[in-house]
Write a structure and sequence with these properties.
Outer membrane efflux proteins (OEP); alpha+beta; two-stranded parallel sheet; 10 strands
Length: about 450
């Protein structure tokens, strides 16, 4: 009931958040982490590895087993009390309890505990890495929605400007004051603007569906997201890429998971080697029995007396020395050593790939910022050119070609600026992730 209540509350919270429509980046990320299937699978794997760790700790304790049986005998048989043949029907019972504990097995139990602990720690960091990967994907999808939203707004503004010119030239054409081709050129431009709007609307819907997919919620066409400013991310990245790599090595879950897998594999080798040593254990047992035909001097012995009289104890040490078992255990040691080398190679490769990714991400961020600043200057320049071309066109001294050229230059520049703005935000967020900064 407790788990069901928690799940119901979580569902209600997600529903209420989505009903608010205007979601923040944090809302989207938290919703995705709560609902994502891969994250849930990683969580279950971590719980399974923790259970294995707990079991390995319990393996240090003695076992305790009880056995009991009750038989109904007919025909010729052996009386378990006298060990004499009997032909009459009788009942018999036996009861026992036993326990044993391993005193020494080459420290295999101790090393197995540490191995399972490190495996669990690696699983915990795998879970966090899955959450981080999902977070980056949600940020990308979120920024894609923002970019498509801004592009659609820009295209609508461009179309409205084209429509106003078409309407103006339609009046002049009706009066015979312009060439018909001037009007058709503007109508063609307006049609281009409408096609661009249709494409942008489709891209926006696709972006929202992708964001909802990552959050694992039903698509809501009225969903909107809060805006972000590119300028807010302009100065929060370290200037030294080497320090960024050092920070990533210290805190990234993928690195910690790889390191813990090496530690787990090292203990795995020790566990395998421990099985080559003799195993010393201590154990004991107690048992008793009962027979319905047990008698003394033709007097039947009662049940309780039989249990007391037949009570038997044993205890002692047991030493098992492995001498030859087709070299299975030595091959297990080799396999464990190979697994260790595999983990070491994997960790080394992970660090190399991380270094390359950070250097590339750092260069991408610098390029994205330079591109954004350059496009800001380009938009300013094209805006001035368009204003001049528009003024000449309005006065009838400019040609439609000059006007459309200036307008198309400005339109493309504005769209490129929107794309560059959110590209820079994304690049900055990726570097934030590498240095362990808050992503939302």
């Amino acid at each position: 009931m407790k788990h069901k209540l928690i799940f119901a509350v979580a569902v209600m919270l997600v529903y209420n958040v989505l009903q608010a429509q205007n979601m923040s980046l944090r809302n989207c990320i938290e919703t995705a982490i709560t609902n994502n299937f891969d994250v849930q699978q990683r969580q279950l794997q971590a719980e399974s590895d923790k259970a294995n760790w707990n079991q390995s700790k319990l393996n240090r304790f003695p076992d305790l087993n009880a056995n009991l049986g009750h038989d109904f005998n007919k025909g010729r048989n052996i009386d378990p009390f006298t060990n004499q043949p009997v032909t009459q029907a009788f009942n018999s019972a036996g009861y026992g309890v036993s326990s044993s504990v391993t005193l020494f097995n080459g420290l295999a139990i101790h090393n197995n505990i540490k191995q399972n602990q490190y495996t669990f720690e690696a699983a915990r960091y795998d879970l966090q890495q899955e959450k981080d990967n999902l977070t980056i994907n949600v940020i990308l999808a979120y920024l894609n929605v923002l970019s498509n939203t801004d592009q659609l707004a820009q295209l609508n503004n461009q179309a409205q400007l084209s429509l106003a010119q078409v309407q103006r030239l339609q009046v002049l054409d009706d009066e015979g004051a312009i060439k018909p081709s001037d009007l058709s050129d503007l109508k063609g431009q307006y049609a281009n603007d409408q096609v661009a709007i249709i494409n942008a609307q489709n891209a926006l819907v696709t972006g929202k569906i992708n964001l909802c997919r990552l959050m694992n919620v039903m698509y809501n066409k009225t969903l909107t997201v809060e805006t972000l400013s590119a300028e807010d991310f302009a100065s929060n990245i370290p200037v030294n890429v080497d320090s960024l790599f050092t920070a990533a090595l210290k805190q990234l879950p993928m690195i910690k998971a790889a390191d813990y897998r090496i530690l787990s594999a090292q203990k795995g080798v020790k566990v395998a080697k421990g099985q080559l040593y003799p195993i010393l254990s201590f154990g004991g047992s107690a048992s008793t029995r009962y027979s319905s035909v047990a008698t003394i001097n033709n007097n039947k012995i009662n049940y309780g007396d039989q249990l007391n009289n037949n009570l038997y104890y044993t205890y002692g040490f047991n030493l098992r020395v492995p001498i030859f078992n087709a070299l299975q255990q030595r091959n297990r040691v080799k396999q464990a050593s190979i697994q260790l080398k595999t983990r070491e190679l994997s960790a080394h490769n992970t660090k190399n790939e991380l270094n390359q990714a950070i250097n590339q991400a750092y260069e991408n961020k610098d390029a994205a910022w330079d591109r954004y600043k350059t496009l800001l200057e380009q938009v300013t320049a094209f805006d001035q050119s368009f204003k001049a071309a528009d003024a000449r066109f309005q006065e009838g001294v400019g040609t439609p070609i000059d006007y459309l050229t200036a307008k198309n230059n400005l339109d493309r520049s504005n769209i490129n600026l929107i794309i560059a703005r959110y590209d820079f935000v994304l690049r900055s967020k990726i570097l934030d992730y590498y240095q362990g900064a808050q992503l939302w």
